[in-house]
């Protein structure tokens, strides 16, 4: 085999996390980034990797601020729906909390973009950047530690790098090769997603409804459509997935329990995702870092997974900006330490909020209702909560 070619940074995984990191690193002056993805990235511009499937992503205002630095907000918003209001409630109980963009003095609380469009925008930006070399479809065979970096073996050649990034998803092979164990917590629940047609406009309201069976979210999309994320036990989701379309829309109307959206008129393809929460036991070792779903995958209850990842990646790229040795563990540890509190808070919250809302009786049920009422009545508390949920809190 010929002499390995060298790249300062190699990212394995061309999903949301890998692509976003490549663009952020370049924005912060990294001279060269190589991105290796296992599957064909796109066909006629349409992304094909698993990140960019039929789902939609609620991007927080903080994520939009990060993407703005890359010049991606205008193309994203060309096919995204603004979130002007977030409404959180528990079906069959008093009290709900509303966050309103105008009250938070924000143009919008966030925006919802279909993953296929998000993928297209990220891929177009990566293709336009001469400093990003994309190798796909390509399977990494193995990685080997060198004194000052890693050697990455592909079927037809070898590459070396100062910094190796594992962005290859929850079942990351790279994380395994780095010797970093991960904890996988199977919640026994699935998320079912589909796009739903409405009989009247959604008015930019994102609904988060806590049912006895688990949370249900309806997020505004372009046109009179909403993105549904319905979570419940696998048996419950089996039943919902098997329903004919009309029966499914009736079941959704009953579960949502409000008439404010009018009738649900039609729906797109249903897809489901097992809710297995992954947590890597370390995110940095000498010359390597683990990001995105490979580092932490969350319950989609509040749509925080990619938002949390973007905050991670923005700080990682900022920390490495202008540094000649991006693999230096003390530098990587500085990044990991600075991200610990936000990561812990968001992953704990997305783990416990669905549980808390499932409790029907006893002190928790009461506290939860008080919490929702307090949030609705006390603007200061609501603003603090909104700032954190929108990724705008201090230090994020
Ligand atoms: C139902 C649902 C709804 C969600 N909604 C939201 C939301 O509204 N807002 C939000 O912020 N987040 C949301 N999320 C979370 C978000 O989808 C994840 O944070 C995001 O997909 C993580 O992307 P990733 O690139 O880390 O991983 P992945 O999407 O898993 O991508 C990993 C990539 O690595 C590639 N790969 C794997 N192995 C190899 C290999 N050996 N070599 C090369 N490449 C490899 C894969 O092909 C893939 O392209 C949601 C998640 C779910 C399940």
TrEMBL record:
GO terms for biological process: ubiquinone biosynthetic process. Its cofactor is FAD. Pathway: Cofactor biosynthesis; ubiquinone biosynthesis. Coiled coil: none annotated. It comes from the Bacteria. One of its GO terms (molecular function) is FAD binding. SUPFAM superfamilies: FAD/NAD(P)-binding domain. Keywords: FAD, Flavoprotein, Monooxygenase, Oxidoreductase. Pfam families: FAD_binding_3. The keyword Flavoprotein applies. InterPro entries: FAD-bd, FAD/NAD-bd_sf, UbiH/COQ6, UbiH/COQ6_monooxygenase. Residues 8-342 form the FAD-binding domain. Gene3D superfamilies: FAD/NAD(P)-binding domain. PANTHER family: 2-OCTAPRENYL-6-METHOXYPHENOL HYDROXYLASE (PTHR43876:SF8), UBIQUINONE BIOSYNTHESIS MONOOXYGENASE COQ6, MITOCHONDRIAL (PTHR43876). Belongs to the UbiH/COQ6 family. This is Oxygenase. It comes from Isoalcanivorax pacificus W11-5.
